[in-house]
Amino acid sequence: MTAAWPAPFAARPVDATVTVPGSKSLTNRYLVLAALADGPSRLRAPLHSRDSALMAGALRALGATVTEVEGDGEYGPDLEIVPVPTRGTAEDSAAPGLGKASVDCGLAGTVMRFVPPVAALVRGEIAFDGDPHARVRPMGPVIEALGALGVKLSGPDGTEPMSLPFTVHGTGEVAGGHIVVDASGSSQFVSALLLAGARFAEGLHLEHVGPPVPSLDHIAMTVEVLRGVGVEVDDSVPNQWRVMPGPIRAFDVRIEQDLSNAGPFLAAALATRGTVRIPNWPSPTAQVGDAWREILPKLGASVTLDGGTLTVRGGNRITGADLAGTSELAPTVAALCALADTPSHLTGIAHLRGHETDRLAALVNEITRLGGDAEETTDGLVIRPAKLHGAVVRSYADHRMATAGAVWGLAVQGVQVEDIATTSKTMPDFPQMWSRMLAQHTDPAAGTDAEARA
Ligand SMILES: O=C(O)C1=C[C@@H](OP(=O)(O)O)[C@@H](O)[C@H](O)C1
Ligand SMILES: C=C(OP(=O)(O)O)C(=O)O
């Protein structure tokens, strides 16, 4: 096992300009759509990370071609995609079907949920599995929905699957139509079916029945992306989505930087009472991370978006806040709340128990390990002010727990993070990017107030 990463302590307020790699959610949505499109597509400045590599690998296993080509992105090449051979295409009539293929989902929710409906649209037996923890991530509603749409799935030894591992027996055709899904466990159940829905013979009418769907912004992103490639989607009735049958238009898109991953860098401004600027902040954007503009002022920062650059200035203190539905931003938010001098209540995030790890338990454990005061509620966390001390923060194979550890390390001496390499899920160069941010102390006059913060 590799040594824990000594999280750098910031002796002075950070004063830095940073950019981050492409959005995971946009990259993996566009990869899926490119695999189902009516011709070759191009992604400019996409994310290159474990989750995007797993998605590319999955689509290759289904017969798509994904090729790296030179581009102008700061974080790696562009991608060109030739779609999977689905029934009725020239590729399909020339090919006998895939036979057996296998897909490694790693720990990527987007791969384990978004790819099985695509597998149903090719001819072959596609076996899905992933990391040990992926096997306990909720998957049932996608499996049941595909079953209701007439797709055959089998578990090990022919059992009825409810989670990974399972095999999709793709016939190249899905009839489509009306299905009822309980998507209270993850918005990805809905996005998965919508992304492929236009390629079902009758399209798709998906109705959610159950407790509220979390991360609705991610479904709105799916709808926006689908409309952008010529798919007609009706989301005018709450909890219902209709995707009309039809082609997915081949496309050439530039992927926005990942605003959720911008979070830990922006948090550095609050944790050190410094300033962090992110140029090329997309606006408007469908990314959930745009919510930093509302969240960070509630925690005591000043935030401006001027000339396309987002500037976050930390205040003299971090204030606690009551925040609902922060979705994948929650671990970074919780990291800041543990450094705040008033209590915080985070609500509407019960489903984080089914993320890369049980994030509510993990956050309580690690905040407590640092000397903090945090407690789980039925649907979130209460975090109360306490003086933190150094400790080894465990990351639970969760990239956002690891980056939370980095945020704590800026403000608390002696923090180390176990398995920092887990950040490669969405940000392979995270430690280097963090060091580069800290090396940009351009304003020595900003002085040091480390004593006051430590
Ligand atoms: O569709 C997506 O790209 C995502 C949806 C969300 O999933 P949940 O609805 O399970 O929170 C989010 O947390 C995840 O990181 C990415
Ligand atoms: C929940 C997350 O990932 P996934 O796409 O694997 O669900 C996340 O990145 O915070």
Low-confidence stretches: 450-454
* Structural class designation: alpha/beta
Q: How widely separated are the two ends?
A: 30 Å
Classified in CATH, the superfamily of the largest domain is Enolpyruvate transferase domain
Number of domains: 2
Strand order of the largest sheet: 2-15-17-16
Question: Largest beta sheet, briefly?
Answer: 4 strands, mixed
The CATH class of the largest domain turns out to be Alpha Beta
SS field, number of helical segments: 14
The helix content, as a percent range, equals 25-40%
Let me know the number of strands: 23
Please state the average pLDDT score. Answer: 95
Could you please say which CATH topology of the largest domain applies here? UDP-n-acetylglucosamine1-carboxyvinyl-transferase, Chain
Structural write-up:
Its EC number is 2.5.1.19. Residues 12-432 form the Enolpyruvate transferase domain. With 454 residues, the chain is α/β, with parallel strands linked by helices. The chain has two domains: 5-20 and 257-453, UDP-n-acetylglucosamine1-carboxyvinyl-transferase, Chain (Alpha-beta prism); 24-251, Enolpyruvate transferase domain (UDP-n-acetylglucosamine1-carboxyvinyl-transferase, Chain, Alpha-beta prism), CATH 3.65.10. It contains 14 helices and 23 strands. The strands form six sheets. The chain has a four-stranded mixed beta sheet, covered by helices on one side. A four-stranded mixed beta sheet has the order 4-5-3-14. Strands 6-7-9-8 form a four-stranded mixed beta sheet, with helices on one face. The site of shikimate-3-phosphate (S3P) has 13 residues, from helix 4 and helix 6.
